[in-house]
What does this fold into?
Amino acid sequence: MTASAALNPKSGILYVVATPIGNLDDITARALRVLREVVLIAAEDTRHSARLLQHFGITTPLMACHEHNERDQGGRFLARLQAGEDVALISDAGTPLISDPGFHLVRQARAAGIRVVPVPGPCALITALSAAGLPSDRFVFEGFLPAKTAGRLARLEQLREESRTLIFYEAPHRLLECLGDLERVMGGDRLAVLARELTKAFETFQGLPLGELRAWVAADGNQQRGECVLLVAGWQAPSEEAVPTAALRVLELLLGEMPLKKAVALAAEITGVRKNLLYQAALERQG
It folds into this structure.
C-alpha cells in the first residue's frame, strides 16, 4: 500500500462525494454545495451523472473516471489538483469506491500529498443492512461474487462458516443462480434477505430461509429486476443436543440399579437417544 505523502498546501482538494442510490431527495446539502463549487467532477458515467447535475441545476464540467481508464487517466485529475483546483469524485450511485471506481485515484492523490475529503451520504449496503433485521453489529461486505459458477461456489465455501452477517451485491440476471449457489453451500434453512431497488418506487425487502427465498424469486420475474443487495445471516455453530427429560429419568432409574456403562446402553436402547449423549449426561450426574 502506498503511504500518504505530506500534504501539499498549494494543491486542491479531492472530494469523494456520495450521491443518491435512487431517491434524489437523499442527496445532502453539503454534496450539492461541493458539486457546485469544485472546478471539475470526475464521474463514473458522464451521461448518467449529467442527468443528476441537470436535475439540481449544477453546471460544473464532467470528466470520465471509470474502471477502464482510472489507472491511465488519473494523472489528468492529479495535474488539476496539483495546480490548486478542487475536484469531486462521484460514481453512478452511492458512495464511490464501494464496488465502484475511485480507489486508484484516491490512492494516487494521497501519495501525491493531495488532501482527500469524504462527503458522506447514501450507500446501498448500509441502507440494506439498516432495515434487513439481521445482526448489524458485525458484518462482512463481499461486493459482487464471481460471475461464473465455479468461482462463486469456491468463494462461498470460504464464507460458509463466517459468523458475521454477509452482504453481497448481485446483478439481477444472476440473482437466481446466486441464490441457488448460496442454498447449495449454506443450506436452505439459512436466513437471508433480498433488498431490491432501494429508495425507489418498487423498493422490496423480503426475508426468508434461502430455499424459500430462491423459490419466491423464481416465481416472480419482477424480483429479478433492478439493483439487488443480498444479506445472509452468519453461521452459527450447532448447539449441543439436549437429552430429553424422559430419557434422563430412565437413565437415572437405571443408574440406581446397575453400572454406568450398562445403564447407558440400556437407556439408549429404551429411549433411542444416542449413547454418547447419555454417557455424558451420566458422568455429569455422577460428578
The chain has a mean pLDDT of 92. Residues 70-82 form the longest helix (13 residues). The longest strand covers residues 139-144.
